[in-house]
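Box S2. Input/output pair 1.
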Amino acid sequence: MSKFNTKRVMPRFSVFAILMTMTATAVMGRMAYIMTAKRDYWMKVAEQVKKDSVSVKPKRGNILSANGQLMASSLPEFKMFIDFKAMHQSQMDTLWEEKLDTICMELHKIFPSKTAEEFKAHLEEGRQQLKPHWPVWKRRVDFNTLCQVRKLPVFNCKFNSERVLGEYISRSSYASGFHIEEYNSRQRPYGSLAGRTVGTMYGAIDKARFGLELSYDSILRGTNGIIHRRKVLDRFLDIMDTPPVDGADIVTTIDVGMQDLAERAVIDELKEIDGNVGVAIVMEVATGDVKAIVNMEKCKVGEEITYRELKNHAVSDLLEPGSVFKTASLMVTLDDGMCDTTKRVETGGGVWPMYGRNMKDHNWHRGGYGTLTFSQTLHFSSNIGVSRIVDEYYHNKPEKFVEGIYRTGLADDLRIPLKGSSAARIRMPKKDKTGRYWSNWSNTALPWMSIGYETQIPPISTLTFYNAIANNGRMMRPRFVSKVVKDGEVVMEFPPEVMREHIAKPATIKTMQTMLEHVVTKGTGKKAGSTAFRVAGKTGTAQIWTASGKTTSYLLSFAGFFPADAPRYSCIVCIQKSGTPASGGMSAHVFHNIAEGIMARDLKLDVNDARDAASILVPDVKNGNLLATNEVLNYLGVKYQSAWAPTNANSAPAWGTCHRSGADKVELTKSQGCDLKHIPDVMGMGARDAVYLMEKRGVKARIIGRGKVVKQSLQPGTAVKKEQQCILTLSI
């Protein structure tokens, strides 16, 4: 018979089943009620405790110099706010009123530009209106300042109980409603160094303004991530949906040392001559890498004159280049086979009439140059000489000359990755519909174009041309960024790019290299020269014309390369200056300082190079304690000969003499010495050993001079007497 009592158990089971059924029915009914009658209410509640598809900004990539130094990097900055509604709900009003004066005094200490009274009025205004997002300080602050503010009374009070759910939920767990917004702030460790090239950001909207920051913004910026936020137990949890992808780093070709050197050289010259604008570009010949780019412009701050980078003049200024263009004019003439370097040209007394206008040389008031050779027209920068040569061969076919200029690459679009960059503008002659007359040309256009007028060329294009001459005719595209790096790995490379394999025939290039070197050694570019290495280049002076046809300003230039026998770097310096004196030599002086500074940085000295037949290869060793001498010679690696067996320098002294044996050896000879009752021989010893031996015998030593002992007043070997004094005369 079963022990299970159905009559007793089943009623209990039935009651339990009924209760469970009723509970389930109630739950289901409540669910139906919430889903229908209360649906709108709870949907509003849900909207307050969650937020979907919140964008998360990635970390912006760094901009690095050629040797890996930071030129631009992102650091966090913060804006601070108070949620006065949350403060009121958490019943912090009494504490706020009690601590308000203290808070304002401390805020004044942190931000001295605003008084405690101003802080109090500002904060009270927000509290009276129960603002949920009231700024404590309107500007961004760094992390250290944020920590200081967070330590203030009330701001450091955390919640002890759950906040009341309202229309606005504070983003902080502080009862005061203190909360922050975080931003990425762009910082440049080297300050304004290469500022227009590196670029900067609009801080408030985190948007690139100009420079490499703008050109490579898509690489530096990265990709935004997405999160959704949920409120759990009075805390908001950020749940990642799509993680952000941080931006990659770009490695520029800029060398920080060269950039600093070039900036200081330009600024020093601008201050010296009261210049308005100073430009300098340094390029590596073989690769086209831009190692330094300077754009200094005169600014007046109050009563003080200073120089800053306000515009990238190096890539955007379209000005007539002046005499630096003469190199291209003569090169085209040679390359077309119109003449050779034996040609001679008459320049007269420095003034020559050309189609109703007078062409003048810079020394016309001193009588001009007379007859010049082809090369001398470049050496002395003769306007008449160059223009007469070009006009002689191209007057009836000016388009052939301009085609030759195009062949040099001067008019090429370099596709510089900097906003505002411009390609050169060199006019091509065109004829009208009849084919008989020029529609955009005049008889004077060609002569004046040949000496650097009638064209507009930015400094970067001129330098690229001179860099091609230094590179044996190979024209390289200027390179500002060499690679893109992500997490230590190279993800993209920008190798050196050849734009033109040859801008002229090899023989023409060789001739121009020699002529440009002679400009520095014999002609107008002497200020650019150096006694340590060879320099080649060309000066230029051009008037800057205004819209009204008047001019009081000049563009002073020098473009060249160094060392001339094995070019490593090319450089151009352009200075805009008002009034006279004004000459290309001013820019040549800046070029000289930059070139010598760069070459000095790369100078590596070897001690072997300093040795010659007169060099002393072993030190001058004094007589005295041979054990100490032995120790020093071993340390210096100097060979020596000795007939005795030395121990170490801590043993009892062994006295003797030393002298050179040959060119690279020292001979040590131990002497018998003398007892303590007789005067020792200290000749040839240093002061320390000589004084030691004298005073050990009770003789007071007096030192005169420095070096080694050449005379002692007491004769060696004589008996020691009480209270004796020995005068030791030393000499080097």
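Box S3. Input/output pair 2.
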Amino acid sequence: MPQNQPPETHPLPAALAQEHRLRKDLGFWGLTAIGFSNILGSGWLFAALYAAQTAGPAALLSWIAAGVLCALVALVMVELGATRPEGGGTVRWPLYASGRLVGTVIGWSVLLSVGGTAAEISAIMQYAAHYLPGLYSGGRLTATGLGVAAALSVLLTALNWFAVRVFARLNNLVSLLKVVIPVVTVIALFLSGTHSGRLTDHGGFAPYGYAACLTALAGGGIVYSVNGFQAPLDFSGEARNPRRTVPAAVLTGIGLAVLVYLALQLAFLFTVPDSLLGHGWHGVNFESPFGQLALVLNLHWLATLLYADAVLSPGGSAYVGVAIDARHTYALAKNGLLPRFFMRIDPRSGMAHRALLLNLAVIIVFMLPFGGWQDIVSVMGDMYLLIYAASAVAVAVFRAHDRERGVPRADGQVPGVRWIAPVSFMVAGEFVFWSGWHDLRLALPLVLAGVPLFLVLRRGADGPSPRDELRYGAWLVCYLAALTLLSWLGTFGGSGRLPAPYDSVAVAAVSLAVFGWAVRSGAGHLRERPGTGGGSGLPDPSSP
């Protein structure tokens, strides 16, 4: 951008004015509650069953692996949140590091991922159908269910409308209830009596092989369940002392959630009656796992509590999701993917009201064609993982650029990120691949639709030419195309032309090669476009 541009046409003062209106009201416990509540949604009610069906008792290893791998990805995002705190940072950092093409494609993915909140609302309707059967039928919301879901979406938006402080207090209460009920469930199931030998009987610890642990990460719902740990980072611009509180809140949220999920998995494995295991773990089938298991064990009071919490847990995640989506939309407006009209922050409440209203419309529209929880979440996880992959590139690019300029080590940098970043990028790619061809053939083409959107938005715009931006961001387009091809060739729902484990090895090799390419491209982008993300300060939001 020309340095002599007239001040009145320069968008930076307006952007910073809106940024400064964000309230700094969130502390460690408020951020931890946001992250934990976002993780512990509808997944805990189903994942223990699906993981056991897929991998048997070896599903315990899947939960541990998911926690470790998500912690690696989280450490990358923690450094970004601590050194570059900003509202909606997860969609801003890729823009700073890799330019407009990557920023647009990732931003498009974020806009589509608003459907994750729609999935939680759809789950509430499905669970509430236990009491009101007219809400859900044949795997889809009925017309009445859609109306109630729309009304619930309006309510959740209204609860987020007023202030960050109100949001944090309400979320703390919801999070407390959400952790108490799973703990009560674990204790009640174990007290009802356990069956010895459950980790070795009925086919052994890994009755379907250890490769099934990988399938359980996606097919068993484990990735979706643990996803959401990045939530405190999206509030880093509203946190008190973010360099200290954000890292601790993210890692604490992951640790607490994995412990809860492990306890639930153990309780499920040890209390399912032997009469239901005649055909092994594959044969265990509940529509409402813990609720129906409680009824089988004559724990009617627990079943009543669980069916009530089946509305509360997804409701809490949807509540947090509405707030996070608003910050993402706010950041997308700063990126130029949406009109700056949606960047407006209400000065009294500190909330992006216009962004809230846009996301309300998107949530309702998203429920119309899909309607069912499983239909929506089948593609959401892949979009989240791509955001994590782009963040891994961003942290490596910023570090490389700082080294080139001789910038001293910044406060908040995480030790070991130099090797954690490529590993987390590879992990994100593997998680995407393991989700299977059935999901990827829908998710990745949807994400690639961001490329023509970029070309439309860049037509006639100031700054680098589309050709230069394609040079900076070609790595992401090629990576998505390669993942799609490898998924079709591989054994996770694909044609099987590339047998296991060579398919996963190929994904790892391609991921590491693309990561190196992406970092070199990003460093070149910052070198040619000074002021777009290097150093310790926030760059000009419109300069890339």
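Caption for Box S3: The first strand starts at residue 136 and ends at 137. Residues 1-12, 15-22, 533-544 have pLDDT under 50 and may be disordered.
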